[in-house]
Amino acid sequence: MSRRPSSARQLSQLTHAPVFAALGDETRLLLLGKLRGGGSLSISDLSEGSRLTRQAITKHLRVLEDVSLVHGARRGRKMLFNLTPRPIGDARSYLDLVSSQWEQALARLKSHVESGAAIGPA
């Protein structure tokens, strides 16, 4: 049985959760760091300087592809990967929205406390 989001906010959270999960792994962050230069890199290029096997790199790249953070294309015998920055921008926009909501809530709390309004029974 699947749960349906009850609000636009929950829908947004569900949309971004897989991206945040993919970004939550140090190896995947390192791979994205290597790809951020804008060029296409092969699995051999991405495994250079790493103790990870090509199979492990491939596994992490699949996770990143599943959430559209990278795009792989075959060129001859090589598979070349590129960073797809849009999901990161979308996730950042979501975090900016959440941050803004918290700032507004904290500002309201500060205003309430500074006004000397009673919070509860004295």
Mean pLDDT equals: 85
Report the principal-axis shape: elongated
CATH architecture: Orthogonal Bundle
Strand order within the widest beta sheet = 1-3-2
- The fraction of residues assigned to DSSP E strands is 5-15%
Tell me the radius of gyration. Answer: 21 Å
Distance between the termini: 47 Å
CATH topology: Arc Repressor Mutant, subunit A
State the helix count: 5
The biggest beta sheet reads: 3 strands, antiparallel
Helix content: 55-70%
What's the helix-strand series? Answer: HHEHHEEH
Task: Count structural domains.
Answer: 1
CATH top level is Mainly Alpha
SSE-based structural type: mainly alpha
Low-confidence stretches: none
Number of strands: 3
- Within CATH, the superfamily carries the name Winged helix-like DNA-binding domain superfamily/Winged helix DNA-binding domain
